[in-house]
């Protein structure tokens, strides 16, 4: 079925001037962008977004990284969007990311893995609502 997923280009991907290249990959892969914004997250925004990871050993480093520069946050729509976005991102640990995936090409480390994507349709609904109000979602009309 047609789904939406929440995608974030992390500060290292933005710092590499790779926004356009990565958006081109999304579009070539058949995703429709239905919302997008650039944000420099506050610590509170980053901690809230990653609340499920609070207390894990990588949490403080992850939050510090995510607030180190601007991010691009976007909503991608396609058939089976959650899984298809995860496929083109590659494995969370870039050491395991297949050639040709976004993380193989743009990640610097497990934490600085260039891209975030929702891991389920339930997460996608929560994560999309975390960053976008309904009137910021722009379904295509042509
Ligand atoms: P992301 O998809 O943004 O979701 C949570 C992030 O935490 C994940 O990508 C990684 O960047 C980071 N992360 C998860 N597990 C580890 C780990 N074991 N070591 C370092 N970073 C991790």
From TrEMBL:
GO terms for biological process: CTP biosynthetic process; GTP biosynthetic process; UTP biosynthetic process. Pfam families: NDK (PF00334). GO terms for molecular function: ATP binding; metal ion binding; nucleoside diphosphate kinase activity. It catalyses: a 2'-deoxyribonucleoside 5'-diphosphate + ATP = a 2'-deoxyribonucleoside 5'-triphosphate + ADP; a ribonucleoside 5'-diphosphate + ATP = a ribonucleoside 5'-triphosphate + ADP. Keywords: ATP-binding, Cytoplasm, Kinase, Magnesium, Metal-binding, Nucleotide metabolism, Nucleotide-binding, Phosphoprotein, Transferase. One of its GO terms (cellular component) is cytoplasm. SUPFAM superfamilies: Nucleoside diphosphate kinase, NDK. The active site is at 116 (pros-phosphohistidine intermediate). Its main location: cytoplasm. Its EC number is 2.7.4.6. Residues 2-139 form the Nucleoside diphosphate kinase-like domain. InterPro entries: NDK-like_dom, NDK-like_dom_sf, Nucleoside_diP_kinase. It is found in: Cytoplasm. ATP binds at residues 10, 58, 86, 92, 103, 113. Its cofactor is Mg(2+). Major role in the synthesis of nucleoside triphosphates other than ATP. The ATP gamma phosphate is transferred to the NDP beta phosphate via a ping-pong mechanism, using a phosphorylated active-site intermediate. Belongs to the NDK family. Homotetramer. This is Nucleoside diphosphate kinase. It comes from Acerihabitans arboris. The lineage of its organism: Bacteria, Pseudomonadati, Pseudomonadota, Gammaproteobacteria, Enterobacterales.
